[in-house]
Design goal:
This protein has about 190 residues and is mostly helical. Helix content is about 50%, strand content about 10%. Strands 1-2-3 form a 3-stranded antiparallel beta sheet, covered by helices on one side. A hairpin with a 5-residue loop joins β2 (about 15-20) and β3 (about 25-30). α2 packs antiparallel against α3 and α3 crosses α4. The longest helix is centred in the C-terminal third of the chain and has 20 residues, at about 125-145. The N and C termini lie far apart (about 80 Å).
Length: about 190
């Protein structure tokens, strides 16, 4: 192969490895079970390198990234209560389900996470908040060059159910006013009715 085209070799354990040289002189390895698989991955990596979208950062767990993101970017840029809520969402909901490798996170995994939370009887509004926090964090990961894209862009959180408000009829209001006469909270209820 020519300079800058990468190299492909078979490893001692029978798997295959492709290596490409990065701009900073370091090498990135790509692994696969067959030569064809590695060759295909190498083509993709070379195209991404040419386009400037090749992720060269070390493989990091999403859990580690989110904890770092919270501590280094959110702790001093959002209100303390907001930070507490973000930390709670990450610790109790996102990390236990999605805390694996950051660069391998797929839209399907995120969508399955939302469904799992719906099955646990969490509201669509709560899941919308989870989506917002994860999206914001992954935007930072894209800016930092840890991932090539934000997988949350390809996922839709569940829609909130619209609840219809039932209003009292005029006759029901009269009955309520009559029942409230002389009650110590009569003024409060009348204000609420108005």
């Amino acid at each position: 192969r020519g300079n800058g085209e990468g190299t492909i070799t078979q490893r001692k354990n029978g798997t295959w490895e492709a290596r490409i040289t990065l701009e900073d002189g370091k090498r990135k390895s790509i692994y696969g079970k067959t030569r064809k698989e590695v060759q295909d991955k190498l083509k993709v990596a070379l195209r991404e390198q040419q386009q400037g979208t090749l992720v060269t950062a070390s493989q990091q767990k999403l859990e580690d990234f989110l904890n770092d993101w919270l501590e280094n970017t959110q702790k001093h840029s959002v209100k303390p209560r907001t930070f507490e809520r973000y930390e709670e969402i990450v610790r109790l909901h996102i990390n236990p389900v999605l805390g694996r490798h950051l660069h391998k996170l797929t839209p399907q995994q995120v969508q399955a996470f939302y469904k799992k939370k719906l099955d646990e009887k969490l509201s669509a509004k709560s899941i919308e908040v989870f989506h917002s926090v994860l999206h914001k964090a992954l935007d930072t990961a894209v800016r930092w060059g840890l991932v090539a894209r934000n997988v949350c862009d390809a996922v839709s959180p569940p829609r909130r159910e619209q609840t219809e408000v039932t209003m009292l009829t005029i006759e029901q209001v009269r009955v309520l006013q009559e029942a409230l006469r002389g009650h110590r909270l009569e003024a409060l209820f009348l204000l609420a009715i108005a």
